[in-house]
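seq:
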Amino acid sequence: MQRVLIGLAIAILCGPSTSAADPSIALAPATMARVGSVDERFQSYNIEMVEVTGGHFWRPYADRRKPSSKADRVPSSRDPAMYAYRKPIDLANPRLRKLAAALGPAYLRVSGTWANTTYFDDINDSARALPPGFSGALTRSQWRGVIDFAREVDARLVTSFATGVGARGAGGIWTATQAEKLIAATRSLGGNIAAAEFMNEPDLAIGGAPAGYDAARFGRDIAVFEPFLRRASPDTILLGPGTVSAGGSGDALGSEKLLTAAGPVFDAISFHYYGALSPRCSKTVPSAAARDSKALSQDWLSGIERAASFYAGLRDRFAPGKPLWITETADAACGGNPWSSTFLDSFRYIDTLGRMAKRQVQVVMHNTLAASDYGLLEEKDFTPRPSYWAALLWRKLMGTIVLDAGSAATPGLYLYAHCLRGKAGGVALLAINTDRVAPRSLAFSAMARRYSLTAAKLTDTRVRLNGRELKLAANDELPVLQGQPVAASRFDLAPASITFLAIADAANPACK
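struct:
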């Protein structure tokens, strides 16, 4: 299969630099052409609605307790091996706020499957019995916590609304009562909903929609929702359809049918992408060899390209010229794989950002910030995981202007480039070497600073920057992300490494 390398414009020169004796790839940062730009909040994240309210979410693999429906208060309809009860997340936690703020500006999406059946209790009576058709309650004080958190960490709020049977009137048509209360409360609490989807993943039958829900019903719902949103919150970006399927129109709830039924109402086309089901849902645990082989493979890393191509095609048909947003993505649905919290998944995480920026996807929201195994932070004490450190380096170095990419027939090497954040004319290069044994070589005639992420083992939960372990200092201070000077010469990329190069003096005219 031909390898597709995106995000970095490179010059592969003839002669010694590409010979078998010296296979380094020669780069020309000064002449890399601009291909477009992404939102300043391109790298964003989710906090699930069920985290805010408290409730049952995907049980972490590290939870060694014997699953118990009684101890974990898991309803009989759910498997206690898959779910565990969480108290509401402490959004006032200083460590959580500090680490989230370091990723700002961002979008914070509070949604997820549980949001479809969450009742907004605007008088803060959490002890009141839930109305029929709802499975959880969001109190006014909890929503205030979300708004305060978003303000403190420079995040703009994205959400969806209750759409289950409890939010419907005669004939099963959606009513705006709950959404209107949430929007009014947001405004009164000093917040703003920057963007919204009608519901989370309308193509799945697990979101609390009425029995027999299909594209025609979705179209009728959108016909009610769209004018309501324009009136109640006119500055809110209408996202949709917010689906996870990437197939054709054969299913009753296929993305194509949903867009056909909804009509040309969306301001941006949103979708979700997961490369697989986690062992929680698939009930299949791959061997270590299969896991490690797949997790760095071209087929695995490029899967999101196929999904993006599918949705770009739908966008071109149903909403020409509108942007693409990914409002949920991680390595695997149902809380992530057992290795999601290790260095191994950092490759997929950071490669996804590079690929989607090249494709001009405007926003990529990682699921989650701090819940289950795919969280950027450990959920109990908010300790940074390897992917968090990769996210922090992206935020520090990769600007919003994306530079052109060539291709290189170098197996296991992925190259991307953006304008360097905060430095006119500067270029930031991202080089991902997924080969576990062989180094890769780059050559460029400019001074640079190197930021290389490695780990002793791919499945380690600790990561090193230029050989030194990254960890929080006293009072949860973030370490200084110090790049090492690189002279103008050939540069080797270590096996199984992620390297950012900051070339401040590239003098690239596209970056001025």
